[in-house]
Design brief:
This protein is an alpha/beta fold. The chain is built from 16 helices and 17 strands. Helix 9 links the parallel strand 12 and strand 13 (about 300-305). Helix 3 packs parallel to helix 4 (about 145-160). Bound molecules: guanine and fe (iii) ion. Guanine binds near residues 84, 103, 248 and 333.
């Protein structure tokens, strides 16, 4: 047995599927994964390894062996790179409106209510539990501009065990933000954002920084240039992640060009907001030059395909961005997207890429209708949802390699509520994973681990419902 075994807290044995690199699904059959007391994967053994049998026996004798059944398998936890926590009660509401009207008529009035901490607690508890039950082990959240409710969201993630990135939203432009939901001015917004960074880092139980603060200018239209400059400086000074919306729709992209005479990406770079720890939501209208800036900065993109169907006026050029080696993961963009599931985001990423490839107007001849080679397949989507999202965040998660944190989902194919039984006849592992990515429901996600810690007792009632 390896020397490090004294610190191994648990061994998981069975079928594992993960995709550390785009392009190749790695399937580990009857593998043994050892996780230490910090939740780090310290050993991955297969039956071909000389010490496999002894290790397994010793783990069993020490009662630290978790043996999966032949109807179960593990995949890495999902990462949601872009979600608005306060919009949880707004799912599926008024999605027929254009983005700017939806924000003004529905979203801002709802977000303004989060000065009520009882309301915030109810919403955030329900949200984080539901995301975990849907397999989202890491989420990058926009909160609201309220410091206390933002801290409450962060502490809810800590209590319930989710890995999270939480941003207090900054928005100070009186021309674009309502009077009752706006930072008083740039100075006040910067002070509040800085306090929020300190408060989240200092939360009880956050010594390991499982919940991290994020500098969060809502988007360029809602922020003055003074604020955007200040937030760039704040992110650098505090070594913080940054998140914002970028070139999302015709209106938003055009607004920034008109105000600043450049695209969002260049503007964010000029404000000091485009770095290795920046996550750009949407980025639908980015040019080749913008892509080059994003790649050089090492920033990432949160592709939110369902939300884009409603608000983007376009389909994100995912294949083109992948070919340019950009970092990309998936986001639900709740409530621009109405689904909490990153598995659903995988399905929509595939479907929208297919529509981009085929084109949509049947009056146009087939050969002129779409963009050739724009499609992605479900395996590529699975990579984006796991290792891709983790890479964007520079997070040691997303795969089962030694050195990664054990953030994992136990998938059970035999649940009466959604038997995936018939799919067990799948002719190969890829087909089985395809069936899971397209059909899994929360009832099939038997247990969720974050940092090696099993969370299911916290997220399910005794009856097994969410
Ligand atoms: N742009 C600025 N705020 C928002 C938001 O809340 N949702 C979406 N989809 N786009 C935005
Ligand atoms: Fe969004």
């Amino acid at each position: 047995m390896p020397d490090k075994n004294h610190s191994i807290a648990s061994w998981h044995c069975g079928l594992f599927m993960h995709m550390p690199c785009m392009g190749s699904l790695d399937v580990l059959e009857d593998a043994l994964i050892g996780v230490d007391t910090h939740g780090t994967i310290v050993s991955v053994l297969t039956p071909a390894d000389a010490d496999y049998r002894d290790t397994r026996q010793t783990a069993q004798n020490s009662a630290i062996l978790h043996q999966m059944s032949t109807r179960q398998l593990m995949i890495p936890g999902m990462t949601d790179l872009h979600i608005h926590a306060p919009q949880w009660p707004q799912r599926g509401m008024a999605l027929h409106l254009p983005l700017q009207d939806w924000l003004q008529q529905y979203t801002f009035p709802l977000e303004a209510r989060y000065d009520d901490l009882d309301f915030a607690r109810r919403v955030y508890t329900s949200l984080v539990k539901t995301l975990l039950a849907n397999g989202t082990t890491t989420a990058m959240y926009f909160a609201t501009l309220h410091e206390e409710a933002t801290e409450l969201l962060a502490s809810t993630c800590l209590e319930l065990g989710q890995r999270a990135y939480v941003g207090r939203v900054a928005m100070d432009d009186p021309g674009q933000c309502p009077d009752d939901y706006r930072d008083a001015d740039a100075e006040a917004a910067l002070a509040a954002s800085e306090r929020s960074i300190r408060a989240i880092r200092g939360l009880d139980g956050n010594g390991a920084a499982r919940v991290k603060p994020v500098v969060t200018p809502r988007f360029i239209p809602s922020c003055t240039s003074e604020l955007l400059n200040g937030l760039g400086e704040l992110a650098t000074r505090h070594q913080c992640h940054v998140q914002t919306h970028c070139s999302e729709s015709d209106w938003e992209h055009g607004y920034v060009q008109q105000r600043l005479g450049k695209n969002d990406t260049q503007a964010l770079a000029d404000f000091g907001l485009l770095g290795r720890h920046t996550v750009l939501a949407h980025a639908n209208f980015i040019s080749d030059h913008d892509m080059q800036l994003i790649r050089e900065a090492g920033s990432g993109i949160a592709h939110c395909p369902l939300s884009n169907s409603y608000f983007a006026d376009s389909v994100f050029p995912l294949r083109r961005a992948l070919e340019k080696s950009l970092r990309i993961g998936l986001g639900t963009d709740v409530a621009g997207g109405h689904s909490a599931s990153i598995f659903n985001a995988c399905q929509h990423a595939v479907a929208s890429s297919r529509l981009l490839e085929s084109g949509v107007d049947t009056r146009v001849p087939r050969e002129q209708r779409g963009q050739s080679d724009a499609r992605i397949d479900f395996l590529e989507a699975f990579h984006l949802a796991t290792a891709g999202g983790a890479d964007v965040l520079n997070s040691p998660t997303g795969s089962f390699e030694v050195g990664r944190q054990f953030d994992a989902l136990l998938i059970d194919l035999d649940k009466p509520g959604n038997p995936l039984d018939e799919f067990h006849h799948a002719s190969n592992w890829e087909n089985l994973l395809g069936c899971i990515v397209h059909n899994v429901q929360p009832c099939n996600i038997e247990t969720v681990w974050v940092d090696g810690r099993a969370l299911s007792p916290l997220i399910r009632t005794p009856a097994g419902t969410i």
